[in-house]
Amino acid sequence: MSSTTIAHQTRNGATETFEEMKIRLMEDINSLVSNSFEPCFRLPQQLEEEEHFLDCVTYGNLLAQGVNRDDGGRGFSLVSRARYLTSRMEYLNGVLLKISAGFSWRINTGHQRIQRLGAVCGLAALPPEILANIFSFVVYGFPSDELRSCISVQLSHVCRHFRDVVISNPHFWTEIQTTPRKPEIGLVEACVQRSKNCPLDIDLNLYTSAVDVALEPGAALPDGIPVMEQRVECDGVLPILIPHIHRWRSLHLEYNKADGFSGSTELFESIQGSLFPMLQLIEEFQNHAGGENFDRSMAYASTWNTPLLTTLILADCLPRSLLSVTSITKFHVLLFSLNDAVKMLDLLGGMQSVSNLLINVSYFYFFVDGEEMEANLVAHKVVVLENVKDFEFCFGSMHAANADRYFLRTFLSKLHVPNAINVFMKGLKTKVRDNSVRRSEGRLRLHQLLSGIAAGSPKIANLDISVERNPTRLNTVLPRHFPPGLEDLKFTCNSNLQFFQKELDAQDGVPELGKLRTLTLGVNSECDTSAVKRWVPWLVSRLKLCGGWGSFEELVLFEYDVDLEDYVFEETIPRDDILGWCKCYDGAPLKDGYESYRSDV
């Protein structure tokens, strides 16, 4: 139904169309606005006259005028007029409230705009040196999914003063990142130009695909399987950066599946044998893209001269082609196979300058390597890295809880870091391939992994052990082997906890905990953690035997938050209250219907 056909009955019984009613309403609103400048509130003249007339009606006048009814029979005429007047005022008030609500939202937005623009104007009044420091924090002060150079571009578009500060400061343009397949060539060129002679941090996208290797006619396929090799392409960013290799400070190689992308295959040929005087870091993430036939030895850098290279962060590749690894001080590596682990031990022997070492084997697939690699690992000589101060070892919780734990223990036994101060042991939820077979997962006995670390690294002062299990009903046995110099112990686990004091025998000995100062414990209240009230008193008894109880300070408790998938602070228990706290600690699972997973594996 159109608006022109809508009718409304007036007090006189006549009807008015929607358009007539809208015109009358606009006249009423105009009258209200005009009257708002008067000292007191006044209705539009027609409504005010009607209101005055109805207010003058008395009982006597009503009898004198009779009690005639409207033709429609809806009620007495005066009552109908009063109702109509009230309806008009209510409708008019509703329209005004709707207008007011719209203004309220815009007024609030306006206040926020004033504050934002006021802050901008206040910042614009600051000296360029201070503005540059503030912008530096905005661009680099916190993690961001947005490209750093894009943040710089946004800052340069606020006002002319901001633009002058941002563009004239080369440090805002030193990080070059582009999106895969559709790089912002103009932005890259602007960064190269505006960064002047400052060092560049480069994220370079590479595109990989598998292609068949052409064999001579009549040649037999090895094992009946076609031979594949890796094809690597690049986009238009690399040619822009090659003339500035003397400014490369860090190189992050991001490998992406080509998926039909067609670019240049002439990668790094023009810079073979070149000098990279500023290059300090190389990061390469292969993501297990192509198997053993693909080049994962960093062959592109085999002739590079990198006198300042100190950091390697690698995934599924090893620096077997680098000219030298003796200057590397920070080495982080993610490995997928036992075969790579054996090769890495060979490389680590030449990295005697490493002080920060991270090895992640949580993606290991032991069953693909065969008995030969297992034998090679067992026969490998021990690698000693005396300069390592920070050591982090990430393993799959599933591997540590099934038959694969033997290989984890063997691997750790082949790597000694005798002077390590800070050690992190992380049991991660295992990532299993779709085409793999998950082995049965049972009880995770941490002491079987930690015994070698505790004995081989006596100078550890800070030990952080974290375990993630899936499902959380699986059982994890609390550790009982600790290095003698330990000062701060942190243990967090999201699963059931167990502690078997009867298993402690003479061969375990008494852990030397005379220097322990703090114990940080993170538990999951939805699991069975009652073993804590036996494990903590056992630690206290060892502290007292070693004479360290007097210097021990506190127990800090954290609670696992399932929604955050992280631990939140719960409480701090002073030394003298710890044993009393243990007596009151329940540890029973709080989750309704929770069933503990029983396993003696």
Descriptive report:
The protein has a 15-stranded mixed beta sheet that branches. With 601 residues, the protein is of the alpha/beta class. The N and C termini lie far apart (76 Å). Helix 6 runs antiparallel to helix 7 (160-168), helix 10 (338-348) runs parallel beside helix 11 and helix 15 (532-545) runs antiparallel to helix 16. Among the domains are: 3-122, no CATH class; 441-601, no CATH class. The chain contains 16 helices and 22 strands. This is F-box domain-containing protein. Residues 124-176 form the F-box domain.
Low-confidence stretches: 1-8, 288-293, 433-438, 596-601
Cα-to-Cα separation, first versus last residue: 76 Å
Q: What shape does the CA trace take?
A: extended
Total count of strands: 22
Percent in strands: 15-25%
| Count of DSSP H/I helices | 16
Q: What's the quaternary structure here?
A: single chain
Describe the protein's topology:
Layout: E1 7-9, E2 15-17, H1 18-35, H2 45-56, H3 59-65, H4 77-124, H5 128-140, H6 148-156, H7 160-168, E3 175-176, H8 185-194, E4 200-212, E5 228-234, H9 237-241, E6 248-257, E7 281-285, E8 311-315, E9 330-334, H10 338-348, E10 356-360, H11 370-379, E11 383-384, E12 390-396, H12 397-400, H13 405-413, E13 415-416, E14 422-428, E15 444-445, H14 447-456, E16 462-467, E17 475-477, E18 488-493, E19 496-498, E20 518-523, H15 532-545, E21 554-561, E22 566-574, H16 578-584
Parallel strand pairs: 3-4, 4-6, 6-7, 7-8, 8-9, 9-10, 10-12, 11-13, 12-14, 14-16, 15-17, 16-18, 17-19, 18-20, 20-21
Antiparallel strand pairs: 1-2, 4-5, 21-22
